[in-house]
Amino acid sequence: MTITELRIPPTLPPDLAADLLATGSAIDPYPTYHRLRSDFPVAEFLDAVSLFRYDDVAELLRHTQVSTDDRNSTLHRSQVADDKLAPAYLSQLDDQSFLHRDPPEHTRLRKLVAKGFTARRIAALRPFVQHTVDAAIDTAEGEGRLELVSALAYPLPVEVICELLGIPAEDRPFVASWPRTQLCCSFESGSLAAANKTNTRQVEADRIQQQLTDYFGMLIERRRTAPGDDLISALLTAQEHGDRLSVEEINATLRLLFVAGYENAVNLIGHGVLALLCHPDQWTALRDNPTLTASAVDEVLRYDGPFQFVRRVALADLDIGGYHIPRGQHVIAWLAAANRDPARFPNPDRFDIRRGDNHPDHRHLAFGSGIHACLGGPLARMEAEIVFATLARRLAEPRLAADQPHYRTDVFRSLAELPIIVRDTRDAA
């Protein structure tokens, strides 16, 4: 069969399209994903082709003929031709981080960034993370409850990424004031819908983008004259065969690492604690056997990962899952759906921290795969490991204060709050 003889992806029916749109704030989006995997595994949705099966998602993420740069899409080019995109959005595209670059530029930038973002630097943060987690639990001890998101899941990753980057303590209240939803959507140009001239949110997105750029520009200049033991200083000195990062490249990298560095961990911690509390036998197993912590983090990433999807652009006509995806087409890889695919994970809706099928050949895709696999994954894992192990060890008889969790109303499916009733806390030692 030639590529021109492949099936054309069907358009999702209105009811399923509405259900898919609602997954960003749904308590349980997985029944929707199950139906999509079964009935519409490759389908047209919002000017893009969506993939829901594990094998199709994995193939796309590792494919050499896909891009993360919107400028390669047919939709972007048509909107430029029709003068529909905001000038500020278009000007920002040249300053994107390696997340939205393709080889060879992506390869060069990521290799240079990796020289500063090392395992040693991440491991050095463990005592800081442990102290911050214990302090949050100590505060909860006198109150009998812990609001996980506001007391720990959100402030901890923000403090950690500030510590890693070298953001001074006196600047952190200002940094923490940046609106979380706007940061997620606008730290870097990546949404053609938001970039449309008629979208009033674009003005606020541009303001936040400029604020991020200006702040990190100031910090880079400060570190050029007074370097320290932080990632900004490391990026300024990183080189490969005499090649270095430019100031603009460092600024784009810092914007990426700051936002992605905490958002991944916020959702991983929130979703993980929720899953453990909803499965008391798993909480008990982790409490009684702390060596299960690493596998518990992997199971959380598979069972209810931090991000629902990632986007790509086809650089050539593609054959994925028996369907024809034309060059220039936006493609959405639904990571959360792929990670519950029964063809890859037996009994996928069961939460089991002893699950044995997360070996390298059958690994979850929560942090992506291929050349764009999440660089900050090890940092988020480290934070989650310490949080899960410490909560299981120190909280006595914890339980959810509400019957249903409350999610934020955005596309990232992130908990707005998760109040926990705590009978008692054990000593940190």
Largest sheet: 5 strands, mixed
CATH level 1 name: Mainly Alpha
Overall pLDDT confidence: 86
| Portion in helices | 40-55%
Query: How many structural domains in the coordinates?
Result: 1
Report the total helices. 20
Write down the overall geometry. Answer: globular
Order of the strands making up the biggest sheet: 1-2-10-7-3
The CATH architecture is: Orthogonal Bundle
Low-confidence stretches: none
- CATH fold-level topology: Cytochrome p450
N-to-C span = 65 Å
CATH H-tier superfamily: Cytochrome P450
Roughly how many Å is the radius of gyration?
A: 22 Å
Q: What's the total count of β strands?
A: 16
| Beta-strand percentage range | 5-15%
- Tell me the structural class: alpha+beta
Please tell me about this protein's structure:
The protein has 429 residues and is an alpha+beta fold. Helix content is 49%, strand content 11%. It contains 20 helices and 16 strands. It has helices at 14-21, 30-39, 54-62, 74-81, 87-92, 105-114, 119-123, 126-141, 148-153, 155-165, 172-176, 180-186, 192-195, 201-225, 231-237, 247-278, 280-288, 293-303, 335-338, 377-394; strands at residues 42-45, 48-51, 66-67, 145-147, 239-240, 243-244, 310-314, 318-320, 323-325, 330-333, 395-396, 399-400, 406-407, 415-417, 419-421, 424-425. The strands form six sheets. Strands 1-2-10-7-3 form a five-stranded mixed sheet, with helices on one face. The mean pLDDT is 86.
